[in-house]
Amino acid sequence: MNPIKAAAVQFNHRPGDKDYNLGRVRHFVQEAHQQNVQLITFPEMCLTGYWHVRNLSEGKCRALAEPIEGGISTTALKKMAVEFDMTIGAGLIELADDGRMFNSYVVAMPDGEVAVHRKLHCFISEHLSSGAEFTVFDIPQGARVGVLICYDNNIVENARINALMGAEILLSPHQTGGCDSPSPHCMGVIDTELWENRHADPDAIEAEFQGPKGRQWLHRWLPARAHDNGLFLLFSNGVGIDDDEVRTGNAMILGPYGETLAETWKADDMMVVADLDPTLQPTSTGRRWLKSRRPDLYRPLTIATGHEEDTRTIRFRKEN
Q: Which pLDDT band, with edges at 50, 70 and 90, does 320 fall under?
């Protein structure tokens, strides 16, 4: 891996307004270019909007979806990647050749290549399918990169497989924080008035963003994905009103020891930037642990226990 200057962005998308959302992407790409950023990551489904999609009919989902090849959003990302000599990742609803729709993440590279990850654990809509493949690829800046979208990162095996496939950097686009979760000790709803009043009283909303509904929850588990696998991790997230919830932003870049290289808890569209130093990686704890694995012991990981359920069922179940 080469030394790389990377950025992670949080922004408040407008549901269904691709022109506006692409405009925000371009704004931050231009800002990143001024700082010599080579790799930038934007949130999950930030080009189409996210949480409102759970209530859309199939027809309305299809109206938002677009193909990767020749699609308006991917074409725009490819042009930006070439113009600014930068690898750029952003999320949308993909319309596949077979007619299925996916929560997908497009990574456009300055050499004209495009990588696409389909979320493995999609739950936002019954009309969207889950992907069935891991996505690890090389970028022109000299690194091997993997992508896991939001819930994908919750499953420890997913991050480990990315590392085993050679990933050095993990892109982790999300729409999270402030969620109404069925777990009583996981996040929690944030009063939308705090966001609306953020300019008059920034301390109130930022306290929520830094607390157990945002940063504190993320820091219970997300750094472990980086640490345990010796990965640099770029966490990009929505921020602000997302239909009837408030996303907490918390954009951050983590190092291969799980350390925080850059982060924000501001209640605004923001970008964080950090230099990824490849000399940290080879002797990191996680990379040494990868060499200590005992694959002969892990066959039970590939055998169903009978307790597995569809992600959508688990995510939206209301426990008694």
A: very low
Separation between Cα atoms, residue 228 and residue 289, nearest integer Å:
7
Average pLDDT of the segment spanning 39-68: 98
0.85 surpassed by pTM? yes
99: left (phi over 0), alpha (psi -120 to 50) or beta: left
CA–CA gap between residue 189 and residue 67 (Å, rounded)? 34
Amino acid at 202: P
Beta carbons of 10 and 236 less than 8 angstroms apart: yes
Instruction: Give Cβ neighbours of residue 223 (< 8 Å, ≥ 6 apart).
Output: 233, 254, 258, 259, 260
Please state the separation of Cα 151 from the chain's center in Å.
9
- Please report where in the chains the tokens 């109130």 appear, as a residue: 204
- Identify whether the C-beta of residue 88 lies closer than 8 Å to the C-beta of residue 77: yes
**Residues 152-195 pLDDT 10s:** 999 999 999 999 999 999 999 999 999 998 888 899 999 999 99
- Name every residue whose Cβ is closer than 8 Å to that of residue 304 and which is 6 or more positions away in sequence: none
**244-277 residues labelled b (16+ CB within 10 A) or e (exposed):** ebbbbbbbbbbbbebebbbbbbbbbbbbbbbebe
